[in-house]
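Let's practice the habit of predicting before peeking. Look at the sequence and jot down your guess about where helices and strands might fall. Then scroll down.
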Amino acid sequence: MASNPSLTASPNVDDWIAIDADGRVHVRSGKVDLGQRISTAIAIVAAEELEVDAADIVVEARQTGMTPNEGVTAGSNSIEQSGHAVRRAAASARRHLLDQAARQFETDVAALRMDGGLIRDPATNQSVSLKELAGGKRFGIPVDPDVELKAPDTYSRIGKPATPRGAVGQVTGRTVFVHDMVMDGMWHARVVRPPHSIARLSELDETVCERLKAQGLEIVRDGSFLAIAGADEFAVIKASERLAATAAWDGGPGLDETDIFMALTENDRLSFPVVGGTPEKSPVPALPEPPADATMTLSARFERPYQMHGSIGPSAAMAMTENGRITVWTHSQGIYPLRDTIAEVLDLPAGDITIHHALGSGCYGHNGADDAAFEAVLVARTFPGRPILLKWTREDEHAWEPYASAMVVELRASLNAEGRVVHWSADSYSDTHSARPRKGPDSA
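Done guessing? Here is the structure:
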């Protein structure tokens, strides 16, 4: 396959595979579990190459600075990128371990057999365990992208039935999601939303604010960001409703109520021709007349409104600031992009922020996990040393999550007398389809 961005960013076996002091195999991946069971898949992939039981493999929790940076878990790329990287890292580790055992036994690698955490020489009955060879040690070698892999007809684990990791806990209710997290001294927080996205906070009722503070609740205001926090979750919920009812907002000109489909095709916009599947920064050529040999020309226009993600479980996050450092627990699809974006917005070194992936509601598309995480950070900065659990409500999720862009597509095709397509045109109009957190001047 083409160059794998995961291996480009993390080229060493130690980035992906480790054998601990007890001989257990640890696998590291930057792709997170969102319901697609990637941890189960990569454990099986690694187990196949290392000839161990997949159930005995530890798939490490995703954390910035500890697991590989594989960007965002999206687009069905987890097996293609992380699975590919883990497989080749495991195969490189396998070859390295066999080479070590061959030297120890003074025999050829081809004579050795590897299974169940042991490498054995059938001719002499000598054996050595992975623990003895590599327990607690670093491999210190790069991943060989051309390493020999096991042939499919020798598979003993891939393609066999397997219980998805975490499935039993989810079915029995024992799984702890980010929404369920509890830490000593933790406070709950809720955001008070404006009437729409361009409204600005103009005034708070000081009498209401003083009464809420007297009840042990704290109001957080950062520009037009407004939230309330306290130890009792129900009290915070009721207080957020009260604060919302009395807060005054400047709505400005309000939201544009022009028909969205007309706006998409008639507003000022950037237009690029797509050549070979890639947009090019050049003028879009005018649509020509149908070819002279066209006997039929068909055209159609399709309109799609904004699409709500409608997550079953609204987004949530935990955040804490301590000694100038920020720690976040989130069900974000991209812990490294989120970390870098938070660092850029707050003008902090990325190394001062640690993001842990925690289980949340699965998603197919982009939900509000990143937004909830950043809001939790804004609240946590006001109360250093205190963990803040911030949950979105159903109303928050439905109104403020990243909606899929509305679109207009205009198609035209011409056929000749033999029924062959002799001309094809497709014009698409939409907002951005890339609104995930990312650094840089084009991140807005």
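How did you do? Residues 35 and 433 are 22 Å apart (CA to CA).
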